[in-house]
């Protein structure tokens, strides 16, 4: 063992959590607690050039020699240390041809009864001009998904708009079709919808409950905050209508937890106040925040200072999350909930999301889009529901995003959490969906470190929280 050791800096990251040191194994996103010996080995190799034998000679007065050699061997195997010998070639990342589409997003109506000032939808219309998807197009979307994914057992059909409930007739017909069709094939189907809640009635709520919809309500917080941007076509605030409908929904709906989706724009950074209103006062099961930094209208984009303030609020809310988790309770803070889920499951992302891999969005005419955010945009579609997926074009797009060389992403410690960031965020900010979202980099690295600390504390002091609140999130 005379080869000189070197530290593979881009493959490891240490985070101090209380009295313990946690190590993120970056290639796999696995998290380890490291002991004094392992930490000492890593730091000694970082500080000077020496072989494994020399390292053992220096440290055997403090640690057992056999333990030292085994530790060095393990660190070499994990590619955290290198002795100069070549490593096996990395396995190629699986792309479209090897994966199956199990989620289809149906853009059922471009029309919306609201005129939210920050809306990113490029195909949005007023209610009277809304372009509605036909039942035939919806059926073709379902059949395309099934034909592309013969071995999948569970599928999701997502209804989106505009306001999807403005085409409830189609949604009802699609649900009837899917429940019959998937039952015939012995497969399961889940229905998901994001709605502004204004069109909800008791009868609609009961029907959604009967078919176990996963529901997310677009709501920005207390009245003064919500009504800044979420207004009717005529310009009136919608808080009172939405809050009344939401209260009735939450009191009546039994099938699944209902979440709130919050859009944070310029001038809106009061994360804790918004969460408290939606979680504690209205009773949503989860509250998730989407900061706007790349909208077409600059006046709605959070400034750099505001974005830092938002993440500071996230961390304060995260401290409350941790305190409650240690008592066996959840605050329903979706952003941290998702990060904890990714850490626990060891999620390793080569691409930022399932768009184009597991999911495609269908516009009202049947065009296949990368995701629902791109319907009506200048990004070309990747086929349509009649002729099928243009796999060569889609594969070329995904391969371009998979190639992180020269971007800084290839050595970033959160590369397998972020994978370059949201396609649409990049498209809106840089006019290029494969461009990394650099404006988030430092904030996201700090956020992941914070999440590692929270997760480590929960696992050390109350691991039953994970079994109760994290593991069941994907169980319907």
What does this entry look like structurally?
By secondary structure, the protein is of the alpha/beta class. Helices cover 40% and strands 15% of the residues. The protein is built from 16 helices and 15 strands. It has helices at 36-47, 52-59, 65-77, 135-148, 168-184, 202-210, 223-229, 239-252, 271-282, 304-325, 334-345, 391-402, 415-418, 423-430, 441-461, 464-470, and strands at residues 6-7, 12-17, 20-25, 30-34, 81-82, 103-109, 154-161, 188-195, 214-218, 259-264, 286-291, 359-362, 368-369, 383-384, 388-389. An eight-stranded mixed beta sheet has the order 11-10-9-8-7-6-12-13, with helices on one face. Helix 10 runs parallel beside helix 15 (441-461). The chain is globular.
Present the secondary structure layout.
Layout: E1 6-7, E2 12-17, E3 20-25, E4 30-34, H1 36-47, H2 52-59, H3 65-77, E5 81-82, E6 103-109, H4 135-148, E7 154-161, H5 168-184, E8 188-195, H6 202-210, E9 214-218, H7 223-229, H8 239-252, E10 259-264, H9 271-282, E11 286-291, H10 304-325, H11 334-345, E12 359-362, E13 368-369, E14 383-384, E15 388-389, H12 391-402, H13 415-418, H14 423-430, H15 441-461, H16 464-470
Parallel strand pairs: 6-7, 6-12, 7-8, 8-9, 9-10, 10-11
Antiparallel strand pairs: 1-5, 2-3, 3-4, 12-13, 14-15
Helix pairs in contact: 2-3, 4-5, 10-15, 11-15
Assembly state: single chain
The N- and C-terminal alpha carbons lie at a distance of 53 Å
Described by strand count, sense and barrel closure, the largest sheet is: 8 strands, mixed
State the helical fraction: 40-55%
Strand order of the largest sheet: 11-10-9-8-7-6-12-13
Category from helices, strands and their pairing: alpha/beta
What proportion of the residues form beta strands (DSSP E)? 5-15%
- Average pLDDT metric: 91
Unreliable stretches covering 5 or more consecutive residues: none
- The total beta strand count reads 15
- Based on CA atoms alone, the radius of gyration comes out at 25 Å
Assign an overall shape: globular
Total helices: the number is 16
